[in-house]
Design brief:
Blueprint: H1 2-40, H2 57-64, E1 69-70, E2 79-80, E3 85-92, E4 107-116, E5 123-129, E6 136-144, E7 152-161, E8 168-175, E9 187-192, H3 205-208, E10 213-218, H4 227-239, E11 244-248, H5 254-260, H6 265-268, E12 271-275, H7 287-303, E13 315-320, E14 323-327, H8 333-340, E15 348-351, E16 353-357, H9 372-375, E17 378-380, E18 389-393, E19 410-413, E20 418-424, H10 439-442, E21 447-449, H11 457-461, H12 464-471, H13 473-476
Parallel strand pairs: 1-12, 3-9, 10-11, 10-13, 11-12, 15-19, 16-20
Antiparallel strand pairs: 2-3, 3-4, 4-7, 5-6, 5-8, 6-7, 8-9, 13-18, 14-20, 15-18, 16-17, 17-21
Helix pairs in contact: 4-12
């Protein structure tokens, strides 16, 4: 009888071991699947299959799970047309509110393209329609959207249809060669725009308080931003009256985005739209032309909003993370623009850029605990990467064509009213010197005191969101804890 008990125990033990091995195998299979899903993000993101250097799809899926910072629209993506041209984003100029379709050019699709400056575009185009897997051949045309910048230039490729054959959803361009299969050309998804905006009359009550500035953010020349710089930029510009941010960047830390999304929208009171940025060029060498393409994409997107709706963007500026618009006399950007252009008649405001070297000595009058942007109070005259900041006034643009004539009516804002502060390490770019100039070398360059930023210091450091970030509390909380308990 004893032998039977031992046999039964051996059999049970053997079955347990087999079951354990099967369970372990299934466990690792499930774990592998979860790791893959975690790395590649949520399924159904075909619109952003390729997002270029620095982009992790996990970051996008994390953003999509939240409402305060998310991709709600078709993201712009650089796609190669041929060896000389790269398309960025496409906009459909039909199905609009204020005009009816006409037999001539019923649909016009504008595509932002970066191409070689010395190569003339010679392409054909196809328009892809809703509920159809066969494209319609369109009529190709193009216009120049910028002066040559080094070896590149900004173009607008136009593809038009003479008849209303349905709602366009995509556009593709291919070489004007009948030996080339057009089905292999990359397809740009189309974004709808309004062709006209109804401007408000200067005598109306709604005209008085209709300044609603927006900032489109691009990476720095070195496309890395720290979490402190990230939150300082957002909070500072929110303090001076900017509630709308469109961010074109793929190098933002996932943890920064996740923590920012812990804040309810009624606390932040801002609206952030995020687009990943891929670039098929050497970024530092093509920075200016990529910046121009992003500005045009930003303007196209904001132009399409109906101006009859309240709280829609009226002015747009393109800034990198190390650039700050700093009012001198006023405490916010809206009041400054209202004083400078009360009739809203100037299309482009030009703001002088000032370089504040981060490797200069801290100002003795700066309060302890203030960020570096408050402690660096001298701007320097030296060869640094800087460009004047343009603020575009959408209220002067009655039709979509006006977006291609941005500099027809421009005016410089005096430095006494507004400056564009650029905070970067000053160095000799002909030498490899990551630390920049030392204290002795800095004394050689001419510099001038400017303390406009300091007046915002107390407001910045006392801001609820900024305090939580700097105190470290927000980094200690898990995503399921209520951030209101920390306020």
């Amino acid at each position: 009888m004893r032998k039977y008990y031992q046999l039964i125990l051996v059999v049970v033990c053997f079955i347990s071991i087999i079951t354990l091995l099967i369970y372990r195998h299934e466990y690792y299979r499930l774990r592998y699947v979860l790791e893959v899903l975690n790395f590649f993000g949520k399924p159904g993101l075909s619109e952003v299959e390729f997002c270029g250097p620095g982009f992790n799809a996990t970051m996008l899926s994390e953003i999509l799970r939240n409402s305060s910072m998310e991709v709600r629209e078709t993201p712009p993506l650089f796609q190669q047309i041929d060896e000389n041209f790269y398309s960025y984003s496409s906009f459909l100029r039909s199905y609009y509110k204020y005009e009816k379709l006409t037999p001539l050019n019923a649909h016009i699709i504008n595509t932002i393209v970066i191409g070689k400056a010395n190569v003339a575009p010679n392409f054909r185009c196809n328009v892809w329609l809703e509920n159809s897997n066969k494209p319609k051949a369109g009529r190709f045309n193009y216009k120049l959207a910028s002066e040559p910048i080094k070896d590149h230039r900004l173009f607008i490729f136009e593809c038009s249809l003479g008849k209303n054959m349905g709602k366009p959803t995509g556009v593709s361009f291919y070489i004007n060669d009948y030996n080339i299969n057009p089905m292999h050309a990359p397809i740009n998804k189309i974004i709808q725009v309004n062709t006209k905006r109804k401007t408000r009359e200067s005598g109306s009550i709604r005209f008085i308080n209709n300044i609603e500035p927006a900032v489109c953010v691009i990476p720095n020349h070195v496309p890395i931003v720290s979490r402190d710089s990230f939150i300082e930029f957002l909070v500072f510009h929110h303090i001076i009256g900017v509630d709308y941010f469109t961010i074109y960047d793929s190098m933002i830390s996932e943890d920064v985005i996740r923590r920012l999304n812990l804040f309810p929208s009624d606390i932040t009171q801002w609206e952030i739209q995020f687009f990943p940025l891929n670039y098929p060029f050497v970024f530092s060498k093509s920075y200016e032309i990529v910046r121009n393409a992003i500005e045009l994409d930003c303007l196209f997107r904001h132009f399409r909003y109906d101006k009859e709706e309240s709280n829609k963007v009226s002015h747009v500026a393109i800034l990198s993370w190390d650039e700050f618009l700093v009012p001198r006399v006023h405490t916010n950007l809206k009041a400054m623009l209202d004083d400078f252009d009360p009739t809203r008649s100037i299309r482009t405001y030009i703001v002088e850029s000032l370089v504040f070297c981060l490797n200069q000595m801290d100002d003795d009058n700066a309060e302890i605990g203030y960020p570096d942007i408050m402690k660096k109070t001298h701007y320097y005259s030296m060869q640094q990467e800087k460009v004047s900041i343009n603020i575009r006034n959408l209220d002067t643009m009655a039709s979509f064509e006006d977006l291609f004539n941005l500099n027809t009516n421009s005016k410089n804002i005096p430095l006494e009213l507004l400056g564009a502060h650029k905070y970067s390490v000053c160095r000799d770019h002909n030498k490899f010197h990551p630390e920049g100039y030392n204290e002795t070398e800095m004394q050689v360059f001419q510099h001038k005191f400017e303390g406009a930023m300091i007046k915002f210091g107390q407001t910045l450091v006392s801001n609820k969101i900024y305090r939580l970030y700097r105190s470290g509390q927000i980094w200690e909380r898990s995503s399921n804890e209520n951030v209101r308990d920390m306020l």
